[in-house]
Amino acid sequence: MRKYMWRIGGALLVVAVIVAAAPVFLPPGSEAGGGEPLGAGAGRRPGLISLAAPAFAAGTAGANFLEEEAGISAFTNVGREIDLVRARRAFRTIDRETDEYIIGSVGVPGLPEADDVHVFVHRDGWVVAYYGRERPTAWIIDWRNLDTTKLEAALMQVTTAAGVSIGDVNYYDFRHPEAEKMMIIIDPDSFNLKIPGAFTVFERSYSFWATSRYSTSTGRPGGSLTVDGRDIVWSTGGIETGTLTAAQLRQGVFQTVGVRYGWTGNRACGIAIVLIYRQG
Question: What is the pTM of this model?
Answer without folding.
Answer: 0.84
